[in-house]
Design brief:
By secondary structure, the protein is of the alpha+beta class. The chain has helices spanning 2-6, 31-41, 102-113; strands spanning 20-26, 46-47, 52-59, 67-73, 79-88, 91-98, 118-123. The chain has a single domain, classed as Alpha-Beta Plaits (2-Layer Sandwich), CATH 3.30.70.
Amino acid sequence: MNDRKANKTVNFICGCDHMTIWFCVKTAQTPNIVAEVVRAFNTFEEETSKDKCVWIIEKGKGIEEYWQILSKYEQQKDVSCVALVYREGDTVVLGEVADEVLPNFLAPLLARYGFDNVKWIVANPKR
């Protein structure tokens, strides 16, 4: 697992003072399809003081296959990683999710895959 995380160094929106959540979805679907379920639920254009914010999916650039759900402001080049999405056995993992976007993940995953197929793990930051 440490090798996987080393290959996926990106600018996460979750800082060290937030809880981090991992969603585990038992499905035969590929990680990019599960990522699209979350992205499609979040297609709104959020107006902020910076600009309109959109979520996009991008294939990771590491040795192992994974996807990133990214948050991007239209007029800026910088992106923030909202989640890493990859397969572990018969489960698709959506990892490194910040607690402030929990509803953006929980609602579409439960609606699509059902309570019995979605589990989550919450980690408190080290203090």
